[in-house]
Prior knowledge:
Blueprint: H1 2-28
Amino acid sequence: MPQVKVNEMALCAQAMAASERAIEVATETGALSL
């Protein structure tokens, strides 16, 4: 059971990193204005 929780945390971390990278790319390309 603990292994499932670890997998969920890993997926969550990957999703967060991916979304952060997507925001960086969007900002660099000017698609996202902050």
